[in-house]
Amino acid sequence: xxxxxxxxGQRLKEERIRQNLTEQEAAAKLHLSTTxxxxxxxxxxxxxxxxxxxxxxxxxYARLLGLPAEELAAQYHAxxxxxxxxxxxxxxxxxxxxxRNLWLWPVLILVLAVVSALxxxxxxxxxxxxxxxxxPAATVTVPDNAAPDSAPETPAEIELPPLDAGPEAxxxxxxxxxxxxxxxxxxxxxxxxxxMSFADACWVDVLxxxxxxxxxxxxxxxxxxxxxxxxxxxxxxxxxxxxxAIELNGDPQTLPRSVRGRVIRINVP
Length: 269
Known about the structure:
Number of helices: 7
Pfam family, one: HTH_25
Keywords: Membrane, Transmembrane, Transmembrane helix
Strand order of the largest sheet: 4-1-6-7
Organism: Isoalcanivorax beigongshangi
CATH architecture of the domain at 8-84: Orthogonal Bundle
Strand content: 15-25%
Shape: flat
Region (Disordered): 129-185
Order of helices and strands: HHHHHHHEEEEEEEE
Protein name: RodZ domain-containing protein
Largest sheet: 4 strands, antiparallel
């Protein structure tokens, strides 16, 4: 069997055995659990996380053993794509069109619409005949020189001086322009800031409250990321034990508890 016919996991397993590496030694170097390593070598991808994580596992495992990492990752991607397409592929049944009596459908729809309208008109509540207004009608006096289509303007508020002030103060108050109303300040949306520090290698995916992806990639030991958006943040960690610190707007957050190599999803806060 050639390399092109061998599955990615089988190639990795054969090379590991050739280099006299045990499953425990390989899993420790990759920061994976032994269960994940066995499923990866057996090409049993249903026992592994999402395809994005598994592709990274295949690439890292190939680099550890000195195999062509991108070739094996591409082979895994093509394998998963073929399996997904074969699962979704269903037989197509062709049903011949029946052209007879097609004109009946528009007529039937029109009849149903007319019947529904008549039923609504017959059952609608009618207003009482002796309905009278609770409040008396207001009388509006229009000057003789006013235009027929003009609407009365709302008078502006004018602050008058005290009653004991002289006529000069009254004339001054009437001549001053009215104070315009205060304009409310615009509402500025709040932006949250989250920082994460890592003590070991870890694959990270961060989404904000609206589902917008803010970050996706692999972090190394001693690295740190900072994202801004609307909380809560939805974070997926490929190695949750590698996270050493999480802060939201400067406040420390509780670290996730997980064994090394376990993939988990958390919300911050």
